[in-house]
Amino acid sequence: MGWSFTRTQPAARGASVRPAAAFLPAAALVPVAALALLVAACTADQTGALAPVAAVVPPEAPRTTGRDRPANDADHAKLVASFGGEYRAASALRLVSDVTDRLVKATERPDETYAVTLLDSPVVNAFALPTGRLYVTRGLLALADDTSELAAVLAHEIAHVTLRHASARTEMALRSELVSKVVADVLNDPATGALLQDQSRFVLARFSRTQEFEADQTGVRTLARAGYDPFGAARFLTALNRTTALRAGAGLNSEPDMLATHPSTPERITQVTQAARRIGAPGLGVDDRNRYLAAIDGIAYGDNPADGLIRGRRFIHPRLGVAFEAPEGFGLDNTARAVLGTTPDGNRRLLFDAVETNAGQGLEEVLKATWNDAIETGSFENRMLNGFPAVTAVSKGKEWFFRLAAVRVGTNTFRMIMAAKGTTDPEPAFGRWLASIALVTPEEARSLKPLHIQVVTAAPGDTAESLAQRMTAVDRPLERFQVLNGLDRGVAVRAGQPYKLVVE
């Protein structure tokens, strides 16, 4: 949790945080809204004949990656800050930069220049700006299993830039906004203007969907021309699909968004596999797995300790000195704005975040100022939670029953919100959650160690199960081990081969 405090202003209730938004999945939160139309982001149809893999990289193509480009771009600084800052890992950065160089030489625009930045975020993501800035999260590096998988993601993002997707989308969005404004203001028809604007969102979504498929196809061709295994794209998307399923099994899945701009991952896997088969049979190109694993050995995995850590159902934030344990059945997700939790069926959710309060502002007023829906009259209750002053209240919506609390721990104020779908009061679980809030002791803070990727060599007799048992502080270790290492269920590990573990 990045812990950017929510400012509460009692005199400006309209500016407070709407509760429904607080329970949106983390993926729905846009870190830098001002950059939304500039960033060609992926979580991460041209189908003509393909040139042979060899001899298509022009040897005279210049080196393209501007590693030493000064980071004085304001948008760049904001974006990097919103993703936890820049991640310093010299060997990983060198690998990403080298792969980028090799890919760019294989594109139709070998004169393009790119500056690579690693982001200190556990989220699996990569994206490019039209300016030629290319971003890769450490979460993506941890998930990819070889150099060709990384190259597949980078080729896809480079394709967005070379195909001028971001520029086209920006132009289309501006044109749509202008038409809606003319209808609403000039023709004095706000209702039709709003309808046109809403319809334009669907057009933009479909447009972006087409862009994604086009970038996939172009990316696979670039991957092959650069000499990488073109099936790396399908392998990485399969890993992405499997890690998403793991989150869903923990109750951390997001509901489908009808305006989602990315095609479903299974659909993309099918398309990139077909594109790779048009180039040749599996075994074409290199995956360079050993070099890749050597480059990412030791990189951080999961949450940054400075933003708090999740250990099972327990959340600990050493810097703020606060910890709690979620009720049984909840899976936790530490996002940049809050700790979110949900049950596997999605019928119960929780949120824990920090709010910045004015001097002398009472806890009851904190709840009123940060909750737009009606709070039940007479439901406010002052209480002590393990020695911390708190105020609790109840709010009932059409589809959800909410229990709210504002808790003051030292000089910090936190919100604890639990929602249950329907009319069932979540109070029993809410009460257990409140009772778990506690200070982080200095001993516990010192004992916390960040997780990282450790590459080990399988010995004779090792199995996926025995290696997974060496993983620490991760949920469903066997499945996590299999996903991180691209192993299907039941596939044996091979003695002498390197594999990724997550350890403290």
UniProtKB/TrEMBL annotation:
Residues 96-274 form the Peptidase M48 domain. Its cofactor is Zn(2+). Residues 1-36 form the signal peptide. InterPro entries: Mito/Outer_Membr_Metalloprot, Peptidase_M48. Keywords: Hydrolase, Metal-binding, Metalloprotease, Protease, Signal, Zinc. One of its GO terms (molecular function) is metalloendopeptidase activity. It holds the Pfam family Peptidase_M48. Gene3D superfamilies: Metalloproteases ('zincins'), catalytic domain. It comes from the Bacteria. One of its GO terms (biological process) is proteolysis involved in protein catabolic process. GO terms for cellular component: membrane. This is Peptidase M48. It comes from Methylobacterium currus.
